[in-house]
Design brief:
Length: 160
């Protein structure tokens, strides 16, 4: 038996309207990443450490989602978006982290990078900037191969 989906007259009208909408405005929006960065900071780490992390709040004022796909800095070999993972429960819970291809910044929303949460992992440190220093740091966003150049303060604790 073939099931047919029956749309109410208004449902049918909305469906048709969706199909008729020109795609041009969406294609335009693809290239417009409307993301700003608030309160970025890099964690100051001792010289024995091989890696550190960068945190910030990304605010998307656009009507399309954007993706944080990577970052780079001259003081490290590589930077990767990561999520914090939790396995098991109670006292046996193990907290770890995992690299991801991208972190989404929802349309008209924010992506929070913070200790014990999403972060940008800075790996293979070639320098260990001290608290109070500023680091040149570039984040990469999609769509549109968009880059934002930042000067990020090095701190031991979050920016207030
Ligand atoms: Cu990490």
């Amino acid at each position: 038996m073939v099931k047919s989906v029956r749309l109410s007259p208004i449902g049918y009208w909305l469906f048709t309207l969706t199909l008729l909408l020109p795609s041009a405005p969406f294609a335009l929006a693809d290239d417009q990443v409307a993301v700003t960065v608030q309160r970025p900071w890099m964690r100051a780490v001792p010289n024995v450490m091989d890696s550190t992390a960068v945190y910030m709040v990304l605010v998307n004022s656009g009507s399309a989602p954007a993706q944080l796909v990577g970052a780079s800095t001259a003081i490290a070999d590589s930077v990767a978006p990561m999520i914090t993972t939790k396995e098991g429960e109670g006292l046996k819970q193990v907290v770890g982290m995992k690299g991801v291809d991208a972190l989404e910044i929802p349309a008209h929303g924010t992506l929070v990078l913070e200790p014990n949460g999403n972060h940008l992992m800075v790996m293979g440190l070639k320098e260990h900037p001290k608290e109070g220093a500023q680091v040149d740091f570039t984040i990469k966003l999609e769509p549109g191969d968009h880059e934002i150049h930042l000067k990020i303060p090095v701190q031991k604790k979050p920016v207030k």
